[in-house]
Design brief:
The protein is mainly alpha-helical and 397 residues long. The protein folds into two domains: 36-160, Phox-like domain (PX Domain), CATH 3.30.1520.10; 181-397, Substrate Binding Domain Of Dnak, Chain:A, Domain 2 (Up-down Bundle). Helix content is 67%, strand content 8%. The protein has helices at residues 2-7, 24-29, 84-97, 121-140, 148-155, 158-165, 171-187, 194-242, 249-313, 322-395; strands at residues 42-53, 58-68, 77-83. It has a three-stranded antiparallel beta sheet with strand order 1-2-3. The chain starts with a helix and ends with a helix. It comes from Gorilla gorilla gorilla. Belongs to the sorting nexin family. Keywords: Protein transport, Transport.
């Protein structure tokens, strides 16, 4: 957690009151974030997943409803259906148009092995939520929200989108871009600015920490699931036992009732863990991978400039054209750097808020869970004490 407490400054301990709040809710209420003015003019909902079976493949589409007051849209409301491949296309177009902006991550194409089956209802719902968040993060981004491909994705019918997707760069053009990118990455960057060195170090450390937290969180959830499955069998055993123990009938039935209430509380806590904490942590695992890609693209742009400057210095190419190319590349590098620096601060603030909120929600869930279990077993002890006193008074002459 070092990256959260020191590098990312996620938890400012001075912001907490020295006095403990009187209830979990009051503690959560002390950690609030300033809301931005409500100037939102684009609202997107992803819902109603639908399965499609063809002779070639089986896939899921999602309904996307967009409501907007923007003048550049032809209508105030749109409804389209999109499949996962369409989301991948949008992400690729955004990266192509804005190589050094931090594009929100998409959920993986395939679920983690051993978690749930593909096309399982839980998997589909988890993906729907992730796709909903993906589109709304783009809609809330000050630059990405006005991207033309994003608008087309939200408004075009399936055949129109398919036609638009075919208008991308040709194969030879893409191959040329790939070759240049690989060549640039092989050369590396000789003089990466200090601020981007610090940024890169932060990303590497953040990636290590968030991946570790993700693995531990998944393991805790798996163990909680196993504990829950065992506890569901534990209560009924006491009921069966009570049938053969006449003097312990009430006690055994009370124990079974307490276990059942704790079982329900555990199930609720697990639901909170799987819906609140795990998706947030895993999203930032994907963000860490995205950030590494952004840094590579920034370095590729600078490496291309460095190679031209080197060619001019040693006169390895036509020196008449190089100054003009270098000037354009210098502008390109400056734009890329400025875009990344501005987006970096915005991303860090969002990340800090998301992680804080996820952890405080987890704390609230845990407190509520243990309060419920404690109250359940305290009531059991009270009932048994009273029963013992009653029996003792009846035994007196």
């Amino acid at each position: 957690m070092e990256v959260f407490s020191k590098d990312a400054s996620l938890m400012d301990m001075n912001s907490f009151s020295p006095m403990m709040p009187t209830s979990p809710l009051s503690m959560i209420n002390q950690i609030k974030f300033e809301d931005e003015p409500d100037l939102k003019d684009l609202f997107i909902t992803v819902d109603e997943p639908e399965s499609h079976v063809t002779t070639i493949e089986t896939f899921i589409t999602y309904r996307i409803i967009t409501k907007t007051s923007r003048g550049e849209f032809d209508s105030s409301e749109f409804e389209v259906r999109r499949r996962y491949q369409d989301f991948l296309w949008l992400k690729g177009k955004l990266e192509e148009a804005h190589p050094t902006l931090i594009i929100p991550p998409l959920p993986e194409k395939f679920i983690v092995k051993g978690m749930v089956e593909r096309f399982n209802d839980d998997f589909i719902e988890t993906r729907r939520k992730a796709l909903h968040k993906f589109l709304n993060r783009i809609a809330d981004h000050p630059t990405l929200t006005f991207n033309e491909d994003f608008k087309i994705f939200l408004t075009a019918q399936a055949w129109e989108l398919s036609s638009h997707k075919k208008q991308g760069p040709g194969l030879l053009s893409r191959m040329g871009q790939t070759v240049r990118a690989v060549a640039s990455s092989m050369r590396g960057v000789k003089n990466r600015p200090e601020e981007f060195m610090e940024m890169n170090n932060f990303i590497e450390l953040f990636s290590q920490k968030i991946n570790l937290i993700d693995k531990i969180s998944q393991r805790i959830y798996k163990e909680e699931r196993e504990y829950f499955d065992e506890m569901k069998e534990y209560g009924p055993i006491h009921i069966l036992w009570s049938a053969s123990e006449e003097d312990l009938v009430d006690t055994l039935k009370d124990v079974a009732s307490c276990i059942d209430r704790c079982c329900k509380a555990t199930e609720k806590r697990m639901s909170g863990l799987s819906e609140a904490l795990l998706p947030v942590v895993h999203e930032y695992v994907l963000y860490s991978e995205m950030l590494m890609g952004v840094m590579k693209r920034r370095d590729q742009i600078q490496a291309e400039l460095d190679s031209k400057v080197e060619a001019l210095t040693y006169k390895k190419a036509d020196t008449d054209l190089l100054p003009e190319e270098i000037g354009k590349l210098e502008d390109k590098v400056e734009c890329a750097n400025n875009a990344l620096k501005a987006d970096w601060e915005r991303w860090k603030q969002n990340m800090q808020n998301d992680i804080k909120l996820a952890f405080t929600d987890m704390a609230e869930e845990n407190i509520h869970y243990y309060e419920q279990c404690l109250a359940t077993w305290e009531s059991f002890l009270t009932s048994q004490t009273n029963l013992h006193l009653e029996e003792a008074s009846e035994d007196k002459p």
